[in-house]
Amino acid sequence: MTIGDGHDLKSSRFSGDEVLEACYDNERALRSGDRDPAVEKVQEALIILGFPVPKVGITGIFGDETELAVRSYQEARGLKVDGIIGPETIESLDSEFPRIVSEPSVSPTTEPPVSKVPTPLTPESPVRSPRASAVRLAGETPEPVRAPHAPSVEELSVPPVEEAPDVEPVHAPAVKPVHAPPVPPVREVSARPEHTMRHVETKPPSTAPSTAPSTPPVTPEIPETDSQGRKFHSSGMWNVDSFLEIKGGRSMHFEVKNLGVLASPLRIKANTGESRDAMILSQTIADFEFSMVGKEPFNWRFDIETDSDTALLEWYLYSTWVPGEPEKP
């Protein structure tokens, strides 16, 4: 094996390795069972090229996994599949990696003869780079660099600017003030109407004679009794959860009308333990009945629950006892 005889490996990975150069010169081969640093280079090259040695890795030992990786590489490259690193396989591996760029050798002992024929020291080049700096040889006197003539400031004349003609001022007509009529004061409106209070104010029927002139009712006239003869007790509005504490008779009857545009669920719980609930459609009426045993009047408490944020419920209460009547045992 001779390195430098012209038949050498060219890549920087394998070039100069005596064992691999001998394989390239067909003087030896790497095979299963060999141990050498050259085996490490072959294992590393196979892993880089995508033929891994997964269990053992780079060990420098040519084992079964290394042989299998070599066979896989040979088959992929169309080489003789024998699992041995010979001249053909190492040449193929060598060609997979960058080659060494050789620098021209310079002999220190031989110098070219100096010609005695005088030659011009500053040859003129037909092409000059506009950005190249001048080179001064020994014995030459540099020529002074002359800057191009720049025009003086006085040579630059600026044309006179003509004066703009006088512009007559524009007088806008006077604007007559506009007197707006006074705005009448607006009565403050509570942000929480009375019917949204937790405690619902009832409207008992009035028994006192009215001295005010009669006006036509806006809403239909409320019946004095219901279908079972219970007398009108009071009325009101519900649109949130609330409660109603009131004195009434043994039998209480709520007529509840949904004034909203959507259906509203409603549940009424009495302090007697009774509970009634219904889904009231828009513009329809639902009935809620409650009763107790004992003397009249009875202190009723009703808890009102509605799950709708848009509820608008008008209620009328009928009772077997109304305010102003004597107690009944």
TrEMBL record:
Gene3D superfamilies tied to this protein: PGBD-like superfamily/PGBD
Region (Disordered) location: 102-153, 191-233
InterPro entries associated with the record: Peptidoglycan-bd-like (IPR002477), PGBD-like_sf (IPR036365), PGBDSf (IPR036366)
Biased composition (Low complexity): 102-119, 204-213
Start-end of Basic and acidic residues biased regions: 191-202
Peptidoglycan binding-like domain ranges (all copies): 36-93
Protein name: Peptidoglycan binding-like domain-containing protein
Source organism: Methanosarcina horonobensis HB-1 = JCM 15518
